[in-house]
Design a protein that fits this description.
- Two copies of one chain form a homodimer.
- Chain A is an alpha/beta fold and 267 residues long.
- Chain A folds into two domains: 2-75 and 187-265, HAD superfamily/HAD-like (Rossmann fold, 3-Layer(aba) Sandwich), CATH 3.40.50; 77-184, 3-Layer(aba) Sandwich (Rossmann fold).
- Chain A has eight helices and 14 strands.
- Chain A has helices at 29-39, 54-64, 77-87, 126-141, 168-178, 190-200, 214-223, 255-265, and strands at 10-13, 20-21, 24-25, 43-46, 74-75, 92-95, 114-117, 148-150, 156-159, 162-165, 183-184, 207-211, 227-231, 250-252.
- Chain A has a six-stranded parallel β-sheet with strand order 5-4-1-12-13-14. A four-stranded parallel β-sheet of chain A has the order 6-7-8-11, with helices on one face. A two-stranded antiparallel ribbon of chain A has the order 2-3.
- In chain A, strand 4, helix 2 (54-64) and strand 5 form a beta-alpha-beta unit.
- In chain A, helix 1 packs parallel to helix 8 (255-265) and helix 4 packs across helix 5.
- Chains A and B meet through helix 4, strand 10 and helix 5 of A and helix 4, strand 10 and helix 5 of B.
- Chains A, B: Its EC number is 3.6.1.1.
- Chains A, B: Its main location: cytoplasm.
- Chains A, B: One of its GO terms (molecular function) is inorganic diphosphate phosphatase activity.
- Chains A, B: Phosphatase that hydrolyzes imidodiphosphate, 3-phosphohistidine and 6-phospholysine. Has broad substrate specificity and can also hydrolyze inorganic diphosphate, but with lower efficiency.
- Chains A, B: It is found in: Cytoplasm; Nucleus.
Chain lengths: 267, 267
């Protein structure tokens, strides 16, 4: 298998659709993570989840039986953009879900000079979108850049009662209204993968990303120089195997099979 | 003046920014309309107003002193799209302002197979956008065209408390989420101008459009083969005089001046 010709020194794993599907563990994933932890191959979790804090994500994983995972090993867009705002002393208009607000502790929100769009779901409304729009236009009027930061660019996702609009359409609305172009935090942005690589102290060629999203996970990782492996779980669809633009380095049934192959190779 | 070399046999007038500005008559417009009515030069009003019915528009104009204007002489996107739905027996999911709903009398709304986006303003919310989104995806699933009709494509407009998002950004959001491309009813769509021309029984070369929107009014009219005259009232900005793509056939101070010039020419 050509994707294993180069040794795998570290892994990046998506959470939703790889470790769990909603409130259910994907069969074999619990054991696969335990094998990785026992083997000493380092891994990080990279997720575009923007409705909760990484602490809540750990809590949820722990409940499902995934142990030994700490918040600092999870890379999510909200803490990434919050760090960007703090480092650059930017004051944010936070159009995000209330559940993720704790992630923005220490970020100034008075007299905002940038807009952050997360998956606010039912908290998206005309008034808040209008406020975000006015912040961007006020920047334009001051001849400052219209800083619009988006925690991903997803079109929609599946909830129990059907498909739901993700944050991407709302970012597109603000782009259309203002002419600004959003800077994306999260997958498939290369910067996002690089932050996780830096934390692993590994180079892109040494690391494999495993995910269920052909574009966000596999294409994104490949764009950052990593190998990208697609699993046939989560949002995977048969048509992904013949995607127009993204060719995964490998397609496996699930995380368990990917880890099995890597273990055999690394013996 | 070259734009008057060809006789002007009819006129199309924008309402907001040409006849009135909010609740105020634009100086000279009342007399200009009376002169037109006395002269026998036919005219129609073309507006992208989508928050009220044409009957309400007439009522508002009458209150300001504009008399002798009937609803059938006003061309607005909502009655145009409502007619399209009725003629094609389409069932609409109406994401529009409640005030404009009477315009959709006789349009079926159960089991919708198309989406109509108007300026719903504060009635835009996550739930309704999600419902519209699901209608479009259900059409895709049935391999039907994703019929998305938008009553214009404005980015924003001015209210007393500041700039406000128009319907365009919300149409853009649904386009981004679904991959559908909206069909625009209203200016600058050529079909919209053609309907008004047909009602005048005149050809495009015989008619002049007068408006304050360099792109929607002037560019739109020119695209449909009419002459387009820009007024320096309403939303006009000095930078419009050197617009990148649209060159008005003439720029005049206001409607009054345009009518004066046309009258002298038509003697």
């Amino acid at each position: 298998m050509s994707w294993l010709k180069r040794p795998v020194k570290g892994l990046l794993l998506d959470i939703s659709g790889v470790l769990r599907d909603g409130d259910h563990v994907i069969p074999g994933s619990l054991e696969a993570v335990q094998r990785l932890q026992a083997s000493g191959i380092p891994f990080r979790l990279v997720t575009n989840e923007t409705q909760v804090t990484v602490e809540k994500t750990v809590e949820k994983l722990t409940k499902l039986g995934f142990t030994g995972i700490c918040p600092s090993s999870i890379f999510a867009p909200a803490p990434a953009v919050a760090a960007h705002l703090r480092e650059n002393s930017l004051r944010g208009y936070l159009l995000v879900h209330p559940n993720v607000l704790p992630q923005f502790e220490g970020v100034e929100t008075t007299e905002p000079n940038c807009v952050v769009v997360g998956d606010a779901a039912e908290h998206f409304n005309y008034e808040r979108l209008n406020q975000a729009f006015r912040v961007l236009l006020s920047l334009r009027d001051k001849e400052e850049p219209m800083r619009l930061f988006s925690l991903g660019k997803g079109r929609y996702y599946k909830e129990e009662d059907g498909l739901c609009l993700d944050l991407g359409p709302f970012t597109a609305a603000l782009e259309y209204a203002t002419g600004a172009q959003a800077q994306i935090f999260g997958k498939p942005n290369a910067t996002f993968f690089q932050a996780a690589l830096k934390d692993l102290s590994l180079s892109p060629e040494e690391v494999v990303m495993i995910g269920d999203d052909i574009v966000g996970d596999v294409g994104g990782a490949q764009g950052a120089g990593l190998r990208g492996v697609l699993v046939r779980t989560g949002k995977f669809r048969a048509s992904d195997e013949n995607h127009d633009t993204v060719k995964p380095d490998a397609i496996v049934d699930n995380l368990s099979q990917a880890v099995e192959l890597i273990m055999n190779q690394n013996l």
